[in-house]
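To fix ideas at the outset, we first show an illustrative case, written as a sequence plus integers encoding its fold:
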Amino acid sequence: MDKPGLTTDEAGLTRCTWRTAAAEYPDYHDHEWGVPVADDRALYEKICLEGFQAGLAWITILRKREHFRRAFAGFDFRRVAQYTEEDIQRLMADPEIVRNRAKIVSTINNARRACELVDEHGSLAAWLWAFEPAAGERPAVVDLAYWTGNPTSPASVRLSKALKKRGWTFVGPTTMYAFMQAMGMVNDHLEGCLCRPQIEDLRRHFKRP
């Protein structure tokens, strides 16, 4: 019998149950979610995509991710920072992305804030990874197995406040906790998921920026 939040397939491999919720999730769960990331462009992309997810399901954003990358210059924040009102209108007319003006404007604003941060600190990654939670710090959720509620953590609250202070938008504590999960700042593959020890090993050997 499967444990809560875990599913064992016909080959006897056990993973987080959410992996089975959509055709795109197996690859995302097995090879991307939780893998530590130190690339500035990828970190900026994930913050922006988590912002676009607000009020939507992650699968909606994941299915449109390549379109977002095309629309936002591969999430090169130096280029996105130069976007103008003309670009906003172009993006608002693009049916392949989420056409929400506030989120589009936020992505451009956050690109400018990312440029400032890198110019000041040398690396977006180094600044963000400084908010990695302490070992054993757990999120505030109703049920870890199903990720009910709106998970946050003390670290995601700290990161959210620090980003907002610097002028970033669509970076609430729940959004930042999802960011930390995806970028490997925490390992939230459930105990029993075959990916959990793999991610732990990657985190052990990951060179913090």
User: Anything to note?
Assistant: The two ends are 42 Å apart (CA to CA).
